[in-house]
Amino acid sequence: MTATSSTQNQSRVLPLYEQDYCHWLETTAYLLREGKLQQLDVVHLAEEIEDLGKREKRAVESNLEVILMHLLKYQYQPELRSNSWLFTILEHRDRLEKLFRDSPSLKPFFESVFEACYTRARKKAAVETGLSLELFPASSPFTLEETLNPDFLPKQ
Asked: Angle 54-59-60 (CA atoms, 0-180°, nearest 5)?
């Protein structure tokens, strides 16, 4: 058997999900719209739906960490404040606002991971600024409301 025929045989055995993910998505959407539920790849469909929820939660954490890191930089490096920092804070607040608008159930998740995200943001701020980790408070100096407030900036 040649390498080519081996590859061809292998692709016939693999489920569509593993052969061509984009095509699998299109086919799954088609089957759902047509009501052909018996033909669905239910196992992979369930995994994908669960992964969507995980991605949304990771997006909350990622955006929150960016906001907190930049708020710390803004507070502890006033001489380096820039429009770029302001834009980054605004952009990531907007992203969280959109996530919460589309999925209000993410708000309690945001609240539950706030301190863990602050801890990671604090370490990243120390690395990025070159300032001592101990300079930054161990607990967030910003409230949940301040963090999301488009008009809030720390004073120095």
From this structure: 100
Q: What is the pTM of this model?
A: 0.81
Q: What is the DSSP string of the chain?
A: --HHHHHHHHHHHS-HHHH-HHHHHHHHHHHHHHT-GGGS-HHHHHHHHHHHHHHHHHHHHHHHHHHHHHHHHHHH-GGG--HHHHHHHHHHHHHHHHHHHH-TTHHHHHHHHHHHHHHHHHHHHHHHH---GGGS-SS-SS-HHHHH-TT-----
- Report the percentage of the chain scoring pLDDT > 90: 86
- Residue 53 has a CB neighbour count (10 Å cut-off) of 13
Structure tokens at 107: 């708000």
